[in-house]
Amino acid sequence: MTSKGAVRIVENLTTVPVVNEIIQEPTMVDILKKELDSGLYKIWPKEKLEPGEYAVVEYSESKLNIQVWDFAIKAK
Predict the structure, then answer these.
(1) 39 is in which domain, residue-wise?
(2) Could you tell me which residues come within 8 angstroms of residue 5 by beta carbon, excluding any fewer than 6 positions away?
(3) Residue closest to 27 by CA, chosen among 7, 37, 13
(4) Contacts of 65 (CB under 8 A, 6+ apart)
(5) Do residues 10 and 2 touch, judged by C-beta distance below 8 A?
(6) Under a CB-based contact definition with an 8 Å cutoff, are residues 58 and 66 in contact?
(7) Which pLDDT tens digit goes with each residue over 10-63?
(8) The pTM is what?
(9) How many structural domains is the chain composed of?
(10) For residue 1, what pLDDT is reported?
(11) Cβ(53)–Cβ(70) under 8 Å?
């Protein structure tokens, strides 16, 4: 996730002219996940995240999805 003034950019999208196709350009982080008894998932990164702003986005192939959970990691 990047910032441009007061706006946060979660993902870049490119629209292909003529065919009007939208191409998603996500920046992915490798994660580990564990399903809990309640049907929820616990997720965490495989590698330590550097200080900065991040977002977890519910991602579905070939379908735009706007469910975003953002968080920050502050420098010590």
Answers:
(1) 2-73
(2) none
(3) 13
(4) 57, 58, 59
(5) no
(6) no
(7) 777 888 888 888 887 777 889 999 999 888 989 999 999 999 888 888 766 666
(8) 0.62
(9) 1
(10) 60
(11) yes
Q: Are 43 and 56 in contact (CB under 8 A)?
A: yes
Q: How many CB atoms lie within 10 A of CB 21?
A: 9
Is residue 8 pLDDT above 80, yes or no?
Answer: no
CA distances from 40 to 36, 52, 55, 59 (A): 5, 26, 18, 16
Token pair belonging to 51: 């200080």
Is 65 within 8 Å of 57 (Cβ atoms)? yes
Measured distance CA(56)–CA(58) in Å, rounded: 7
Distance CA 62, CA 60 (A): 6
